[in-house]
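Why does this matter for the project? Reviewers at the last site visit asked to see concrete outputs rather than summary tables. In response, this paragraph embeds two records directly. Each consists of the residue sequence and, immediately after it, the corresponding structure tokens. Nothing has been edited or filtered.
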Amino acid sequence: MPSPPGPTTSRLFSRGSWPEARRIAEILRLETVGGMLLVGAAVLALIWANSPWRETYTALSEITVGPAALNLDLSLATWAADGLLAIFFFVAGLELKREFVAGDLRDPRRAALPVAAAVGGMAVPAVVFVAFTVSSGSEALAGWAIPTATDIAFALAVLAVVGTSLPTALRTFLLTLAVVDDLLAITIIAVFYTSSLDLFWLALALVPLAIFGLLVQRRVRSWWLLLPLAAITWTLVHESGVHATVAAVLLAFTVPVVRRSAGEGPGLAEHFEHRIRPISAGVAVPVFAFFAAGVSVVDGDGLGAAFADPVAQGIVAGLVLGKIVGVLGATWLVQRFTHAQLDEGLSWWDVLGLSMLAGIGFTVSLLIGELAYDAESGLGDTVRIGVLSGSLLAAFLATLVLRVRNRHYRRIAEEEARDDDGDGVPDVYQSGPAGSDKKDYSGER
């Protein structure tokens, strides 16, 4: 019989630092509200698209605005996908950089688990989708990346309702997995869903991008300087044929995370996050959801025809089955090859619940679906039905598992929150006797 693990045994989902836990809690609150708004916008779109006034919903989506001379005379639905989602990906880029530069995940041992889970959670759903659609031809296969994404706002909204007492480490894992997932998704969009590439415009986009990077490295915060440069970069990337949201991630990666001195206040990445995340979660993503989720199921064969299509079947199976196998399997492999063990008190049922929750692929899945199939393919509604159904089924299954686990963790939550020395830092985050661990966690490192 193997001996119990010693004190130096590495742990999966171990408790991070108190400042990281506090920062994650703040992000969760904002994203949870955004998730509620996202769900509300999607429900409104579904109701409108299936009402007697559904023609007005379609007409609203197709209203064209913007300067034609710059090839920016786009429909409102396209502006939501290309423009508003750029705000979402800018915030995701800031969060990813902060995680790996100043967060707990700057430690490669901590980063390995969510990165591996994100990769597994994208690879397996893609394989599952291909298995369902390989006999349908190359057109159907074009959507292989649709079930690979995890919607952070939607997933956190579900987690906020059913997992109020889950350990912070599990929430951090889900958040980080989704952020890495977003980076991989935007890479897939840039590489595989760029139909034509104009290198001249792409090279020209590097000029305002470099100026933007130079200014933020000098800690310039003036919006009247940075916003025009960001808009020009976005426009030039859009003109190059690469999806314009890629520009937002590149802009975010230029923003410095670590502040120059302890007394200068929040770092620039944190400053931008505090300003822009509410716009992303409260406006950009819900508006995109409103224009992307409106699918009519009352016309024609409706749901029956959609679910008979291998594309919808592949999306649902990828989001539900593929995510479970990918995330859970990658986590098990990390545990197997590093000889790590789950942190004390955690269970593989927790990992299963989070794997199911990762199957909520709403926002980015809908975006990839729009890029994979053009209007002539007739697969737009099929993709929407598949994404909505798969995401709702994943949310339902995750709820069943996590509600049971949440009751278990609720019983120990009060003990976790004890702060006997009254210093504002829970005692479980202090390495020694109360008050012995007094590091300054107030700012970025």
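We now turn to the second protein, recorded in exactly the same manner.
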Amino acid sequence: MHQNQLPTPVYLVDAGKLEDNCKVLQGIQQRTGCKILLAQKAFSMFKTYPMLGKYLAGTTASGLYEARLGAEEMGGETHVFAPAYKAEDLAQLDSICDHIIFNSLSQLSLHRGQCHYASIGLRINPQCSTQGEHAIYDPCAVGSRLGVTHDKLSLEALDGVDGLHFHTLCEQNADDLKTTLDAVEQNFAPYLHKAKWLNMGGGHHITRDDYDIPLLEQCIDHMQYNYGVQVYLEPGEAVALNAGMLITTVLDIVENGGITTLILDTSAACHMPDVLEMPYRPPLKDSGDAGEKAYTYRLSSFTCLAGDIIGDYSFDHPIAIGDRLTFQDMAIYSMVKNNTFNGIPLPSIALMDRSGDCQVVKSFGYADFKERLS
């Protein structure tokens, strides 16, 4: 069916754009010998995993359930990192995962004896903040709970540890990776020389138009050549960047204090939480900033949360009840974060092929809401 025939709200994922992104990532792997994994915390539409698995080396997880999903649906390598693990999860993770990465020396000491098959890694904290906009996502902030600083490490403490992991970026370019690597080399070089692999985490916006791929490849080549490590990258956003839409319908239009608000059948709080958390302004097809075009509206939701505001947008023509609007770049951090606050239904999930034909692959109903409660 055509996308205009899809019931709303609906996440629509563009399989062709996903594949185009993966071909960019595959080229980096082929030229450098690095391995790139899908970070499922950003995108977990496992219907697409067989296709993604043709281009990527595997998946990375933040816990047992994501690890199981990646191993079952994509295969390839399965990696996991969590700030802390439950002992009862470790036995399953050890049988599922190729790499298990610990966040602290105490977690390493407590659980390393349970890892009989997986390669063991430790997350390090380079203490090098490159976040200019999104402080909530800065793992190198003072007091961070993520990663071990160099003053806490020793070669003895890392006995039996195969690799090091850092994750410091969020929607950033390769220049920030280069800055981070300089700090990593300065503070952790003795441990890098002992390591078999180095995982440089996610946050690399590799498939963005202005991303400096040659500099990224120089960074990878430098680390692999100088330290003899296998480099891993685990982007989530780069895999599904600009590969999804959230299509919504205008249910009502209200006015108060000179502001005209569109009430939509989607929600920032329920269906795109990053709008409130980061905060983040999602791109909207055929719109402009407030006042840029002739007709300006505030976009909101049919939840009862007064602050469930998506943002102010302008249009070339008046918007009417029943019109459909399309938010763009909605594949990432949407399906994985959504919720049923207020009993709001979850959007359906649809997949579009290169010809434009759309198929609904998952719909949700009352049972999905009720089964999360008790």
